[in-house]
Structures are given as C-alpha cells and as structure tokens.
From TrEMBL:
It holds the Pfam family adh_short. GO terms for molecular function: oxidoreductase activity. It comes from the Eukaryota. This is NAD(P)-binding protein. It comes from Mycena chlorophos. Keywords: Oxidoreductase.
C-alpha cells in the first residue's frame, strides 16, 4: 500500500509536459475535486488550463485566486484558470455546458468527476429531480456518464495528439459491487410501496441510490474503456475524506446519537484530510502505468486494485461479449475489485441512454 510520501513523490515526479494540459474538474469547487485542482496547479506551477465546474461562483473564485500563476501567458492554447457554472443535478444543464466547452476547446487531457450530490452523506434523505431522476444518482452517476459521453471527443483529440488522456470518476471503487437493472429508477419503487411504508421508502431509496451509484460507476468505466481502449478510465475510491460536506453523517433523528458517535470515530481514526487525499488521487491520475489506456479500479491510496489493459488489436465491436454474465469479468478477463459483467454493462448503457434521451428530449415521465 503506497504511503502518503509515496503518493507525493509520484506526483512530484510528473514531468511538466511540453504542451499546456487541459483539466476539467466536475465538482471542483469543494472537497476532493477542489483539492485535486489545487494540487495540479501547484505541481505545474500554474501552467495548466484548469476548468472548475460547479454551482458556487464565489467559492470557485477563491480557489482560482489561490492558484500559482506563470510568469507570462502564452498565446492560443496557453494556460488559463476558469470557472464554468454548472448544476450537475440537471442533465440539460450538463449537456449545455459540455456543448459550450466543445465550441472553444480543442482537447481535454484530464476529466475528473467528484460531485457527490445535493444531499452529501445523507442515508435518510432522498428525492427526485425535476427531470425525474433520483437525486443521489443524478450527480453520482447520470451527470458523470453525460460528461464523459459529451466531452469524449475532446479527450480522444488529446490521445490522438500523443498527449495524456485520462478520465477519472471519484466515488467508491474496489468493492466489486455487482449491479442489475431490476427497478432501476428508485422513485418507481416509492410509487409501488405499501402505504404503511411510505415514511420509510425515502430512507430505503437513499441507501439504494448511494449503493447503486458505486456499481453503476464500475459499469460506466468498463463501457467507455472498452469503446476507447487506448484511453485510461479510472474509478477510484477516495476513502473517508474530511471535507466540509463530510463532517456530519445523517442517519436520521432516531439514529442521531449513533451518527454523532460514528462521525467522531471517523474523525479520530478513519478520515483523510482532503489535501492528503488529493495527493493519492492525483498520483493515480498522473500515473505512467495508465498511459497505454484501459479500465482501472483504484484504492484510496492510489494503487490499482484491478485493471484491464486491452490488447493492441482489440475491437469492441468484435470482441465485446454481450452475453457474458460472469460478475467481475471484463471482456473475458477477471478483474479484481470490479462488479460488472459484459452483459450488465451493456444493459446499463442501453438503459442510461434511454433515460437521458427522455430527459434531454423533454419526454421523460
């Protein structure tokens, strides 16, 4: 297990590229995303085009002002530090922001997604968005899928130029959590609940939304990696990070004392300061081991739990095994810490596209 010093050394060893990297941080105005953006700016002495996506313009400006600035700015393609407002709880807003970025960016080298959702660590509160999506899944899964789908041409442009190209989703990798699409839309489960359970169904949905988001992120990474085998896609576990949004654990009023006790225990024994976490996350993002591309499921210390680098002659249209139902297998290869199968990933992708089509076309229920 790499130590914090190992992670810092790995980040420090990252050579300054000859080009100015473009890094998009979705969820970059707080928590792990903020800390990663700050660490990358320091490592490259400000010579990087960083785009923070989020809702809080004031917080973003404070972060951007803290970045080191190069002595001089180059012309077209030079360094820049900017904020783009985006409500990732709205798929239409995510799509619009991605469309705007594609009009003015030539490439994206690093796409990092870490926004946890409007309810943070709540295991009891859950609702649906105006677009009809469970609000735990909207930011933890659907917005991430949409960011990748829409910005992928820019990531591919970076890879085609021989530059770094890495997509990272920060959530809950390494558990090998299987998933299926039985009752995938959690608000439908609420509608079918018995009346005397109506008060409990938001709590069930909250837990299910948080758990399913982990498995769905495994599927997201596996699908896009298989379709783009020369680009690195990573699902990483940040661990118990001590961020502003994680300092309370909401278990509801009945279990409030337990929540306080667990929060204290986490603070003393388990949590990682967000700046230390950023070093682990950044060491994985910048790792030379991912430069060939592939799918990676990575621990909270930046080490790969399991991964699959596709063979040079791999063709997703030819080699993807739609009927393979073995959990933990990717393109016929056992991958430690991975919870999908080729069949469930195919089904997940089809369902996700159907949901997004309904939302983005305005025909969602």
């Amino acid at each position: 297990m790499p130590s914090l010093e190992d992670a810092k050394a790995a980040v420090a060893a990252f050579p300054t590229p000859s080009y100015v990297p473009v890094a998009v941080f979705a969820g970059g105005t707080s928590g792990v995303g903020q800390a990663m953006a700050e660490a990358l700016a320091r490592q490259l002495h400000g010579r990087v085009h960083i785009i923070l996506l989020g809702r809080n313009a004031a917080a973003a400006q404070r972060i951007l002002d803290s970045f080191p600035k190069p002595a001089s700015a180059s012309e077209d393609g030079g360094w820049k530090h900017e904020f783009v407002q985006c409500d990732a709880n709205s798929m239409k807003n995510v799509q619009a922001v991605c469309a705007e970025l594609k009009t003015r960016l030539k490439r994206v080298n690093f796409l990092v997604m870490s926004a946890a959702g409007p309810r943070g660590n709540s295991f009891t509160e859950s609702d649906v968005t105006e677009e009809g999506i469970d609000d735990h899944l909207s930011m933890r899964y659907f917005s991430r899928y949409l960011y990748v789908r829409e910005l992928l041409p820019l990531v591919k442009a970076a890879e085609a130029s021989g530059q770094h190209a890495h997509v990272m989703s920060v959530l809950g990798a390494g558990f090998g959590m299987g998933f299926s699409l039985k009752d995938p839309m959690l608000h439908e489960e609420r509608a079918r609940s018995w009346k005397f359970l109506q008060g409990l169904t938001p709590k069930f949905a909250a837990v299910k939304g948080m758990v399913r988001g982990v498995g769905y992120n495994d599927g997201l990474i596996a699908y896009f990696a298989a379709q783009n085998p020369s680009i690195a896609f990573t699902h990483i576990m940040p661990g118990q990070v001590w961020t502003a949004g994680a300092q309370t654990l909401d278990l509801g009023w009945l279990l409030a004392p337990l929540g306080w006790l667990l929060t204290l225990q986490r603070r003393i024994f388990l949590v990682i300061p967000q700046d230390d976490c950023a070093q682990y996350m950044l060491s994985a993002l910048l790792s030379p081991d991912t430069e060939r591309g592939g799918a990676f499921f990575t621990s909270m210390h930046g080490s790969v739990v399991g991964g699959h680098v596709f063979p040079a002659d791999y063709d997703a249209q030819r080699d993807w095994r739609d009927e393979d139902t073995r959990t933990g297998y990717l393109q016929g290869v056992r991958v430690k810490g991975y919870g999908g199968s080729d069949k469930t990933v195919t089904e997940l992708n089809k369902w996700t596209e159907e949901v997004l089509e309904g939302v983005l076309s305005g025909s969602a229920a």
